Amino acid sequence: MKPDYKNWVPKSMVYGLAGGTLAACILFLLLGATGAILHGTPRLICGIVFGIGTLVLLFFTVWMGSLHRTFDYNGKRKLAKTIIEGTAKFVKLPDGCTGLDVGCGSGALTIAAAKRNPKAAMVGCDIWSGTYKAVFTKKRCEDNAKAEGVSNVRFEEGDAIQLPFADESFDAVTSNYVYHNISGHDKQKLLLETLRVLKKGGTFAIHDLMGPARYGDMDAFVQKLKAEGYEDVRLIDTTDGTFMGKKEASWLGLADSTLLIGKK
Fold first, then answer.
1. Where along the chain do its domains lie?
2. In the chain, fewer beta carbons within 10 Å around the N or the C end?
3. CATH code at 79-263
């Protein structure tokens, strides 16, 4: 049995885009390009609409296909694995302690952190719903842990907006590409909600798209944490070669990838 962490860009999405591209192209040829069915103004309008539609869908098909190949755990680039293992390096737990992975998806980061801290434990939480509910499930997380031979993990339902854990419950907290997906909520408040459950002296490593448009002034946020007594708080640009290069990050739409680390 091998672990299956899935891909946040499912093949079904790529195939769906490819099918849409083909359909738009056929309609363009039938209604706009050949003149076999329509003539005059209707033909011109259909030619423009379906021509543009074909190009747009083709772009997204190529782009999403590239994303799928890049993030594929079994592919050549394996960017997802690089990011997961790179983030897990910052999750350091003393023996007998417990860490939390918020928005664990298929359990990849939870399991990677547990493997790095075999004498500690990790809890992965997620709501396992929405767009990816058919791909990421609690059972998949548990199956992946078994496949990896990792027993110091458990998975629970939990929403990042309001975590079902008491204040200062964990010795470390981590997350990867989660908060930017939560629309309608202040991202800095989501970070504070995660840090709420972190014990005094605990460490955190949170990776996400932390550009100003989504997160506001993160430099000011770091200074706020330091003023509250947090230590060694840093923002790491993971597109500087840490996880990926600038050009690759730009093409993938991940130019704002940043790792927030520190100690409470």
1. 11-71, 79-263
2. N
3. 3.40.50.150
